[in-house]
């Protein structure tokens, strides 16, 4: 028998965090096996083949005829970019003419809404509200599923610490813990109670892996990264998505340490399908199998197909590499049929799970489509989620919320009347004329009680002297000015990396000219990434970071401006002061020469021309009210392995407005066998409080929260001192204490 001490010692070292195998329904696996036995090699490979079907509907063309023939012959397993009940029914009916009548899967990039557009994912992450994020994904799924879609290519769970990377807008920001919570919420939101319900779609955790760490923030570039960094920072949200049951994963375009992700068996076989026991299927990114040739990793497309299927990529998106080469690769004995069977089984399983074999047109109900797409529920939710996504960065003199006695408001700026921009890059199916602009939102909110003046002040990229003069003249006639500045929709997103993330054009000149009128100026900044706007940060009285908020953008911003909603958003990503600070993130480690704001001292880890701190820190965001933190307590100061510690404190609304605070708990493992970050987010909670109201908040930290990857990638907890920090932002710690974990 083991002695108690030995047993404890073993537990100590072997807290292994593998994902449990997802349970499969034996009745479905049996059906899958039976069907597989009836399939020819060609039909099997067909399941691994996905085409973009834009040409499939509409006027007949040579391409559409070819695609139709492929489907009829059973050489296509799924299609992307065909949407709407009419179109999906039409294309599905072609698959029903194939020998085995295996239904097609219809997939689409439903990233932040389908017909109703929700805020971009980075904006929603700023809500730190998991229920709101889940609801947004659920309503997007509900609309898409009503419109014939079975499968969305979302959520993107890539951690991103470089705002030059345009796709930072599609993710949840810089932090692995917040990112994991959001990954789970989004997967659960998209996939609903059970897959097969007609208000749910299959989710895709993408892009596996480390895509967000693209060298120099340039989209599609390679990634060199230590395993340690991969495991501690980039993999956790993927693991959370797998654990939450994400039906599919998508490869990333990048290489990871020299191996393209699509052909990377370490990622796909060892980690995902091995250690994590993942039973869903993996789709390549658009032609990412073929791109392995361009990378210089495969001799030709056939070689790329061999590498991808061997590594564990199940579906070839739009590349045709599997379709053209797998048969000969099998015949030449280079690809065992067992490998093909394994991939096919994963795909068929999901098709059965969706109920498509019972009714291939299950998602093609035109009546349901029209009801769901016209249901006001989605617009109401989009407005509420948008309100929660707004971050109040500055509010000098409590200028916001605006007093309703003001007579004249000037709305100024290139994005004041923008609609298309609010829908951002992934606008898959929306009528963007239905978007509420900021100008419309403000006008609706005051309903004729006040005068709303308007000046465009130029375009996002340029304000001429005349534009500026006109804006100044309009501002001079108003009591207060609301400015709408930022990026246009095509400046962030896929392939929209920027080498300079300053607020574009000369919008800061426009701001300064307007501010020089002496009128109070509220600046709203819209965009898909953290931007740099130091002059505005220094001089504006009030700044709202409003991202791109979707269909209800203008209404949501007006709700915040007029105090109908008290802002509660917190930044999910650090905002740099200057480009040279990138990558900047809060969970840095200490150095041997830490810098503590001592500008005159040299030989410390600092810049000679810039501060170390970000302009706005991770977790930062103001409210119209204030919150006090007090009575921080631990239930014990000493714990032993596998114990937990309960942290409690009192949170009080110390201001005049009802509001919500995101209370954050950060942890530091003071001394460890691998240097640990100065602070790591471990828990958070969003609490609503009336003025004067207090609530005791409890957080429990267990073994897992104290663990980290050691130098050999074991997930372990080590004895020693752990510092607990409670606060309102990563740079606004209000109380701190410590406990010791003993052997
Ligand atoms: C390429 C993008 O990287 C991916 O995120 C998207 O899902 C596919 N294209 C399909 O549109």
From TrEMBL:
Q: Which UniProt keywords apply?
A: Hydrolase
| Transmembrane domains' residue ranges | none
Any Gene Ontology biological process: carbohydrate metabolic process
Record domain Fibronectin type III-like: where: 661-730
Keyword presence, Hydrolase: yes
Pfam families, sorted = Fn3-like, Glyco_hydro_3, Glyco_hydro_3_C
Indicate yes or no for the key word Hydrolase. Answer: yes
The molecular function terms in GO held by this entry are:
beta-glucosidase activity
Q: Which family does it belong to?
A: Belongs to the glycosyl hydrolase 3 family.
- The name of this protein is Glycoside hydrolase family 3 domain protein
Q: Which organism is it from?
A: Mucilaginibacter paludis DSM 18603
């Amino acid at each position: 028998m083991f002695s108690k001490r030995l047993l404890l010692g073993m537990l100590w070292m072997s807290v292994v965090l593998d994902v449990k195998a997802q349970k499969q329904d034996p009745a479905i696996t049996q059906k899958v096996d039976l069907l597989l036995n009836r399939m020819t090699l060609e039909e099997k490979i067909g399941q691994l083949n996905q085409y973009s079907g834009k040409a499939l509907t509409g006027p007949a063309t040579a391409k559409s005829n070819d695609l139709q023939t492929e489907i009829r012959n059973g050489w296509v397993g799924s299609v992307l970019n065909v949407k709407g009940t009419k179109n999906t029914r039409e294309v599905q009916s072609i698959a029903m003419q194939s020998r085995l009548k295996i239904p097609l899967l219809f997939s689409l990039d439903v990233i932040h809404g389908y017909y109703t557009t929700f805020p971009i994912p980075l904006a929603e992450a700023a809500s730190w509200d998991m229920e709101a994020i889940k609801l947004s994904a659920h309503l997007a799924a509900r609309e898409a599923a009503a419109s014939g879609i079975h499968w969305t290519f979302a959520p993107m769970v890539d951690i991103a610490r470089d705002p030059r990377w345009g796709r930072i807008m599609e993710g949840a920001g810089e932090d692995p813990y917040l990112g994991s919570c959001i990954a789970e919420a989004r997967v659960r939101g998209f996939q609903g109670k059970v897959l097969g319900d007609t208000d749910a779609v299959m989710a895709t955790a993408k892009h596996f892996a480390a895509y967000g760490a693209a060298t120099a923030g340039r989209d599609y570039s390679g990634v060199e990264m230590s395993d340690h960094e991969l495991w501690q920072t980039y993999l956790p949200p993927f693991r959370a998505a797998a654990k939450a049951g994400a039906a599919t994963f998508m490869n990333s375009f990048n290489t990871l340490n020299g191996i393209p992700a699509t052909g990377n068996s370490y990622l796909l076989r060892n980690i995902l399908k091995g250690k994590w026991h993942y039973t869903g299927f993996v789709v390549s990114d658009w032609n990412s199998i073929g791109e392995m040739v361009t990378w210089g990793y495969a001799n030709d497309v056939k070689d790329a197909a061999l590498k991808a299927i061997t590594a564990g990529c199940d579906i070839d998106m739009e590349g045709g590499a599997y379709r053209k080469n797998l048969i000969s690769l099998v015949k030449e004995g280079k690809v065992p049929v067992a490998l093909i069977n394994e991939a096919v089984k994963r795909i068929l399983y999901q098709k059965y799970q969706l109920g498509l074999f019972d009714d291939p047109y299950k998602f093609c109900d035109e009546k349901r489509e029209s009801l769901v797409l016209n249901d006001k529920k989605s617009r109401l939710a989009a407005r509420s989620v948008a309100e929660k996504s707004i971050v109040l960065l500055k509010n000098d003199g409590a200028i916001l919320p605006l007093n309703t006695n003001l007579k004249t408001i000037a709305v100024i700026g290139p994005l004041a009347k923008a609609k298309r921009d609010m829908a951002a890059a992934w606008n898959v199916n929306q009528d963007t004329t239905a978007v509420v602009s900021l100008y419309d939102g403000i006008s609706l909110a005051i309903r004729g009680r006040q005068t709303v003046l308007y000046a465009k002040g130029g375009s996002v990229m340029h304000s001429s002297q005349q534009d500026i003069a006109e804006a100044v003249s309009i501002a001079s006639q108003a009591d207060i000015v609301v400015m709408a500045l930022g990026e246009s929709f095509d400046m962030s997103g896929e392939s929209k990396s920027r080498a300079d993330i300053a607020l574009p054009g000369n919008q800061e000149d426009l701001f300064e000219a307007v501010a020089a009128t002496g009128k109070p100026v509220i600046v709203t900044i819209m965009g898909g990434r953290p931007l740099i706007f130091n002059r505005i940060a220094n001089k504006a009285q009030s700044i709202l970071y409003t991202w791109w908020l979707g269909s209800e953008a203008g209404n949501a911003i007006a709700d915040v401006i007029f105090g109908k909603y008290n802002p509660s958003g917190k930044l999910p990503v650090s905002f740099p002061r200057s480009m040279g600070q990138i990558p900047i993130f809060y969970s840095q480690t200490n150095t041997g020469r830490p810098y503590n704001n001592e500008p005159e001292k040299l030989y410390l880890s600092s810049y000679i021309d810039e501060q170390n701190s970000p302009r706005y820190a991770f977790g930062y965001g103001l409210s119209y009210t204030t919150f006090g933190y007090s009575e921080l307590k631990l239930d014990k100061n000493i714990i032993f392995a596998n114990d937990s510690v309960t942290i409690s404190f009192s949170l009080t609304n110390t201001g005049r407005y009802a509001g919500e605070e995101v209370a954050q708990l950060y942890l530091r493992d003071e001394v460890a066998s691998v240097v640990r970050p100065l602070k790591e987010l471990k828990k958070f909670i969003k609490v609503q409080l009336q003025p004067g109201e207090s609530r005791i908040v409890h957080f429990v930290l267990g073994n897992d929260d104290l663990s980290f990857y050691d130098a050999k990638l074991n997930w372990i907890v080590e004895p020693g001192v752990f510092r607990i920090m409670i606060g309102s932002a990563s740079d606004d710690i209000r109380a701190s204490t410590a406990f010791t974990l003993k052997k």
